[in-house]
Design brief:
The complex is a heterooctamer, with 2 copies of chain A (182 residues), 2 copies of chain B (86 residues), 2 copies of chain C (357 residues) and 2 copies of chain D (260 residues). Chain B is an alpha+beta fold. Chain B contains 2 helices and 4 strands, in the order E-H-E-E-H-E. Chain B is 12% helix and 21% strand. In chain B, the strands form 2 sheets. Chain B has a two-stranded antiparallel sheet. In chain B, strands 2-3 form a two-stranded antiparallel sheet. The C terminus of chain B is likely disordered. The longest helix of chain D has 19 residues. The chains are: A alpha/beta (182), B alpha+beta (86), C alpha/beta (357), D alpha/beta (260). Chains in contact: A-C, A-F, B-F, C-D, C-E, C-F, D-E, D-F, D-G, D-H, E-F, E-H. The structure holds thiamine diphosphate (2 copies), iron/sulfur cluster (6 copies) and magnesium ion (2 copies). One thiamine diphosphate (TPP) sits at the interface of chains D and E.
Chain lengths: 182, 86, 357, 260, 357, 260, 86, 182
């Protein structure tokens, strides 16, 4: 399957993982790719961790559910603990090193990249944009979608009432990408 | 130090309801997060003496996070029930 | 209403809503239950703005009976729920079947039995296809495998409901309901079936003779005649059968799977094809009418079969019945409660192929 | 005297055929009152009748209007669907006490609470007529039925439910009254009440509800005349007649208006 | 309570009541509907006198949930209804299946779909056997063919319900319910299953750990494990399969029919035997578990099959599945609404025999 | 000060584990009050809890008593079955407003009307909590929810249903009260009411019913403190607190007793 | 003879309710059975003049079996509606 | 099938046809035979005619429903109209000649016997016992069960409160039998 990529995006409820999953899915669609986005709501209905799976492909996508993903964005420690073991060998793992000790990254097996997402976001004025930093880093690392398409898709996931936040989010995406540029 | 009121930080969800009912307004939000990611409340040492053991905080708390003891002066001997036993 | 050709990334639940709205659904009667809550929520926002009807019923029983009322008026109307709520609608569905009312029921099913869980499952196949209500009635059952299909099939559901004056169920699961995919909108059209007088529906009698819609048939032979007519109607539905064949031509083994499991099995099959295994997929899209003729044809051509479902084995009965003249079907059941992935199906497919992995 | 002026005229919307009801069964009177109101308010062309399951299941044979048969107890939900789909129609249900107050309790309460613009005609004969006289929620304490052969016992089965009072207490109800048809005076008052129960939703005020106390001589195991006496002697004292709610701006003093 | 050996002439409905009472049924929850009204009526008379419970529920939904409550207490309890009312019980039945509660449900079915009529019909086979409720659960389905069997099987129903902790349905029709036949009473026995503590039931916890009966399984893999266990339980029910073979040994053609149709077909077969036609009868008594092995054996022995039902064709699926390795089954469906008589089946049997009458 | 005398003790029947409720959710208080009454009345050994479907679905994890899970809305019917099967048990349901007042309306009404000797603890948070904040029958007019995004409109969706008033009007009800847990005073009064709702059926007088007004900060989209204020500012004026019926021989003046 | 009141014998079920409301008590049970097997009521010729056309019998009759006309003296011209038309 | 007999008993609702059907069934049971009794409630739930089918046999009985019966007891005219055409050739038809014109009996095809059941019952003091007269006549004509067994079974179908009516009913059965004794 050409142009195929899949990723689990995971974190605490309030970290906006669903939002960046959707953003990635939009961007892939805008980029002319097939894409699926699947929120996985765990057993606990209230609180707990949230995660979603995004699959991007030039072909039809069979399964929106991935047990052994090619990549992972882990915004907190429980997410890394839970999903890193499932990432395929050599897969990309973006770790929010602001909250997770990079010593936990299985660098022997996967391509783990620490991004101090909260701090970068903080430095841009709003910790809440840590998710954007992470997705920017992820896009940069995998090339799954061009950064500008990602940025252009912000308007699809940020409600019109908050349109004025878009430039800051673009900045955060860029900062994330910059942080991992080789 | 003898504290007539204690907050079980693992239980507290930082809802702040106890703060609104404390007659002495001595309960405040700490800057600590517990393992579940909630900010927790506290009665700071400076004010803990003002606690009257009225138990208002415990009655209003939805998360069974508060333990309150009578001031020793009032406590009868032999009654040492642990609040959270059972 | 969508602009024709508009391309959006939406959840299956939303696709169903938008498809229904585009298809001229005038009335929606809902009740909350996970994992279909997006449907009543979306409809509560959109329908009133279009001057259409959204009612949150007091229960699924009431919602189904409101649907019965609106359908009796010949209005395009719909209800949606998930497994336990669908069980509660069975009496009304039997009444709508018996009264020959065009009504659309959506089941975004979840794990069962009982309260079960809120994850995906195909445990309601029997209920949908064999009839969970009493008496001999059949409903069209449409099982989308993609969000696009969810949009397209809900439009088809309304058309079939009115073409046959019969209830139509769209059977999805938590995967179809919750996943987002790009969808091209605008192909669903309101047809003339929303016109005020269809020759049978209730409009207030005006100057004509009164009309009566009922399922009670007490005079001698009346119910028997009614059942005979219904039987013929159900048989005639055969012509609207829908399915997808994927790489079946040279396949030795055909996996039969519907809905989300069908699409997931496709991933497995792609992967196995890459390693030279001659596997194909037959995905029934209408579960009733079931694509028995096509399966019989494939069986006659010497194929072997493996039915994969997300339940203890329900559709496999229909597959075995369809192919019984020439073949049989193996079965692999993913337990409801476990999320299905393409990897889960490799072993069963290899086993059915007779290959030891 | 056929060319004298009629002192009593059957409504045109009522089919002139024999009914299937037992001798003395007051479903006949109740459905005639509905027909009279349909005629007087000129509703027959825009009326949609929601039949229910009970002895009145064949009401569609008698009322010459568009009709649909609802599952047992669900007429108020069906009526909601019909009215929302056809807001211009005059939608009414005709339901027995088993249908409305037992299995259909939730649908009745919520139809009223939402203030659906429909009319509910509720015929309370304190028993399940059609199925052979089983206990209903409205069965009087001490009354023997086929499922309380020793007589209804308040302690075990509860007291008879007073639906009109409950329905009147709900916000969406525009008109609620209880009437009887056991005397000429009561029949006249009942007619008024049925009429108002139709007018209230037509005036977009909310639900119109009328409870008609009626006999079931067969299952009460009484002659029609005895059964009719029971209405005033036993039923009315427990189920007081009267207007319990009326948003149509008329005097709505309890127990007076529609009795007069 | 009956005197053992007492011989009476009673209706099937009454036989069910007396059988249940003899079997120690402590609680009955009912609601009126023809043609099963004799059951709540009889129970309302008898149960209170025995110090047992009769409740006329507000609806079939409520009756089924009262049953759920009593069953959770490990008390022998029962509800009864007819087709539309049974549709309303489907959610609770699925819950009882999922919660593994021993409960007995009687369906004296009538003509459908919808309000249908009040005559006999077998239109509820699918609902009873395939599960009209949501999710993967199965219930024992016992189909008496005589009033004696109605008495005997209701006793068996309680025993099976407790042996397997599972709902059991007794499926009769207006014929079985309304006809009178001589019955010998007294064989049904209350077993120790009505004792207060069965190890799982709710009694108030007293000094032990609290017990919990539920069907929600949210922790990872819990529902899947539960479904697997249920699957095994359902498979194990096979050992309690019941059927009657009548003149099958030398038969060329075996009529497969259940319940009242089974006994009526017997008349036809007797008559045709008299004229030398080699016809036999296989009458499944448990519809779930279905006597598939026996049918397979008969098929392997070279028999041909004709399934006769009082519906549009439901059990015939299970017959065809059972015999598919060796044979197929023809089908004759008597329309619900027509009373079946032995004469009705002559022509179809001759046709299946390949004889032109 | 652990060896001082406890000024507040958690009931032994309450499992000492964290709850799954959102911060500030008053299900936590409500279920604690139930637990306290179970302890005080020494009922834990003979109690049977009928759980319902809603955010409180896991109540069986918190109350260490025998429990069964009822289908959505059917807890009063399940309770009837349990109580009739085990008359010696102390049977109670714990239900939300969607569960009790919407889908379960018929079961609630008839359980009360029959006077089942059970306790119904009704937690009214004006919204379907578990499923994500949809409109409930008790949602306030104007309140925005996910299925009335423009705010509940009385004209279209009706007014919030006052269950305690309705239940109190039924013959089988022995005790009915509405309480809140938004202030210490109210919590204390609520405890009394819950206790009486247990005592009434245990005294064989009929149904015990207590409605507890509670917050759902998550779905009200408010902080817990704001949500708690809404109870006194918006809810209580519409849903007046008080004892609406009490057959236990105490003064039952409306609006007074349990508030004190 | 002019009869202000007539009973449709095929409709009457002999319930006798009309008898209980007639102010003049002029309605009586006949000894005739109709085709459905019901005894039917009648106003005998001897008393028919006593009928006041009050229509009480018609209002109470559950079976639409009674037709009542105003006494001619009171009837206005041109109004000749047949009760059972339509 | 040896010792086989079946009969449809039909009449108006109040004529007690279900009662004599049950009586016959009880008697057959007491006589050691197999028997089925099937009430057939017609389409109209209120009023109208009532009928039941009784099948008696030494063998197991297959069908309790008989489309073409061997015999008929017609207590009124609609019953004769409806069921006589279905009676098998040569079958026994007991006609209540008090209410039915015997000219309607198809004497060419069936063995029709008129019994003035109402009058005989009247003469015994109670028209309501016409049903007993008819069943007595039927038993005499067919010999399906001995008369004394029929009489002895009265206590099974007449409720204890009305036990004092039993002798009169025995008389009516006997009178019916006497009326048709060859
Ligand atoms: C779901 C369902 N349950 C039960 C029945 C049977 N049933 C038919 S009518 C009826 C009760 C009728 O009583 P009521 O509503 O009081 O009307 P009445 O005959 O007294 O006028 C019942 C229980 C049914 N048809 N459907
Ligand atoms: C038959 C059925 N319908 C719907 C649902 C989905 N459901 C679960 S909880 C709930 C509502 C809960 O609201 P409420 O009773 O107010 O409880 P809360 O969560 O607010 O405490 C619903 C509709 C279900 N489980 N079963
Ligand atoms: S009320 Fe309880 S949970 Fe809330 S802040 Fe206070 S201690 Fe914490
Ligand atoms: S016990 Fe009373 S005074 Fe002490 S902290 Fe709690 S509320 Fe404040
Ligand atoms: S059974 Fe009762 S309600 Fe039904 S028709 Fe007869 S008298 Fe009327
Ligand atoms: S959603 Fe509402 S009711 Fe549910 S736990 Fe959270 S705050 Fe409580
Ligand atoms: S019209 Fe009046 S007076 Fe004349 S018969 Fe009728 S009730 Fe009697
Ligand atoms: S009221 Fe009507 S049906 Fe009854 S006796 Fe009088 S005329 Fe006949
Ligand atoms: Mg009634
Ligand atoms: Mg709620």
């Amino acid at each position: 399957m050409s142009g195929y990529q899949d990723v689990i995006v995971a974190g605490f409820g309030g970290q906006g993982v669903m939002l960046i999953g959707t953003l990635l899915a939009y961007a892939a669609m805008e980029d002319g790719l097939n894409v699926t986005y699947m929120p996985v709501y765990g057993p606990e209905m209230r609180g707990g961790t949230a995660n979603c799976t995004v699959v991007v492909s030039k072909d039809d996508i069979g399964s929106p559910i991935i047990h052994l993903p090619k990549s992972l964005i882990a915004m907190n420690r429980p997410s890394l603990d839970k999903f890193q073991p499932r990432v395929q060998d050599g897969g990309v793992v973006v770790v929010n090193s602001s909250l997770v000790d990079m010593a936990l990254a299985d660098t022997a097996r996967v391509q783990a990249v620490g991004v101090p997402a909260n701090e970068i976001a903080d430095s841009l004025g709003n910790t809440k944009m840590a998710n954007m930093v992470a997705i920017g880093a992820y896009a940069q690392l995998t090339g799954v979608v061009p950064l500008d398409v990602l940025k252009a898709s912000l308007k699809k996931v940020i409600s019109p009432n908050y349109a004025k936040m878009i430039p800051a989010n673009e900045q955060a995406i860029q900062a994330g990408a910059d942080a991992v540029r080789a | 130090m003898m504290r007539p009121v204690e907050f079980r930080e693992d239980r507290c969800k930082g809802c702040a309801l106890c703060m609104t009912v404390c007659p002495g307004e001595i309960i405040t939000m700490s800057s600590r997060f517990n393992t579940s990611g909630y900010k927790v409340v506290e009665v700071r040492d400076e004010v803990v003496e003002e606690c009257t053991s009225c138990a208002a905080c415990a009655l209003i708390c939805p998360d069974y996070a508060v333990s309150v003891w009578r001031k020793p002066a009032k406590a009868k001997k032999g009654e040492t029930a642990d609040v959270h036993a059972g | 209403m969508s602009t024709p050709g508009e391309r959006v990334l939406i959840k299956g639940n939303e696709a169903i809503c938008r498809g229904a709205v585009d298809a001229g659904c005038q009335c929606f009667f809902g009740y909350p239950i996970t994992p279909q809550n997006d449907i009543p929520e979306y409809m509560s926002k959109v329908m009133p703005n279009l001057g259409r009807v959204f009612v949150q019923a007091e229960s699924e029983v009431a919602a189904a009976n409101m649907l019965l009322g609106a359908a009796a008026c010949g209005i395009r109307a719909m209800t949606s729920s998930s497994s336990p709520g669908i069980s509660l609608k069975q009496e009304a569905i039997s009444y709508m079947g018996g009264t020959e009312l065009p009504a659309v029921i959506v089941n975004i099913s979840r794990g069962g039995p009982g309260l079960g869980d809120i994850g995906p499952s195909q445990g309601d196949y029997y209920q949908a296809v064999k009839g969970g209500g009493h008496g001999d009635y059949r409903q069209f059952v449409l099982a989308p495998g993609t969000v696009q299909e969810a949009y397209d099939l809900i439009g088809k559901a309304f058309d079939l409901a009115f073409a046959y004056r019969n209830p139509v169920m769209l059977l999805g699961d938590a995967i179809i309901g919750q996943m987002m995919e790009p969808v091209t909108l605008g192909s669903n059209k309101e047809t003339e079936s929303n016109s005020p007088d269809l020759g049978w529906n209730l409009t207030g009698k005006g100057q004509r003779d009164p009309r009566l819609l009922k399922s009670l048939h007490l005079t001698d032979g009346a119910l028997a005649g009614h059942n005979l007519r219904l039987r013929d109607k159900y048989a005639s539905m055969e012509k609207d059968v829908l399915f997808e064949n994927f790489l079946v031509d040279d396949a030795e083994l055909i996996v039969v799977a519907f809905g989300s499991i069908g699409r997931i099995a496709k991933s497995t099959i792609r992967k196995m094809r890459a390693s030279g295994k001659k596997v194909g997929l037959h995905r029934p899209i209408t579960l009733f009418p079931f694509p028995s003729r096509e399966l019989d044809k494939l069986a006659a051509a010497g194929k072997r079969f493996l039915t994969i479902e997300h339940n203890l084995g329900q559709m496999v009965d229909d597959v075995r019945l369809a192919v019984r003249k020439h073949a049989d079907s193996d079965f692999y059941g993913q337990m409801p409660g476990n999320l299905p992935t393409p990897e889960d199906f490799e072993q069963p497919i290899l086993a059915a192929l007779g290959v030891n992995s | 005297m056929k060319n004298g002026k009629a002192a009593f005229t059957l409504p045109g919307v009522l089919a002139d055929i024999p009914t299937h009801y037992c001798p003395g069964c007051q479903h006949g009177v109740a459905q005639r009152l509905v027909a009279e109101c349909l005629d007087e308010l000129a509703l027959s062309e825009k009326a949609i009748c929601i039949g229910s399951i009970g002895c009145s299941v064949f009401i569609y044979n008698y009322l010459k209007v568009d009709s649909v048969e609802a599952p047992h107890g669900r007429a108020p939900a069906v009526a909601t669907g019909v009215k929302r789909a056809r807001p211009e129609a005059a939608v009414f249900t005709y339901q027995g006490d088993g249908d409305l107050a037992s299995i259909g309790m939730a649908e009745t309460m919520h139809c009223a609470n939402r203030g659906e613009r429909v009319t509910i005609v509720f015929v309370n004969n304190t028993v399940y007529g059609m199925t052979g006289g089983q206990m209903a929620p409205t069965t009087m304490v001490g009354q023997r039925t086929t499922t309380c052969p020793g007589g209804r016992c308040a302690d075990n089965e509860g007291e008879p439910i007073k639906m009109t009072e409950i329905i009147a207490s709900l916000g969406g109800t525009a008109y609620a009254a209880r009437v009887a048809v056991d005397s000429v005076k009561h029949v006249r008052a009942a007619k008024k009440a049925v009429r108002r129960a139709f007018e209230a939703p037509l005036n977009n005020l909310g639900l119109g509800f009328v409870e008609i106390l009626a006999t079931c001589p067969t299952n009460w195991k009484m002659t029609p005349v005895q059964a009719n006496k029971r209405i005033s002697e036993e039923l009315i004292p427990y189920f007081p007649l009267g207007t319990y709610k009326n948003l149509m701006g008329e005097q709505a003093a309890e127990g007076t208006e529609v009795e007069g």
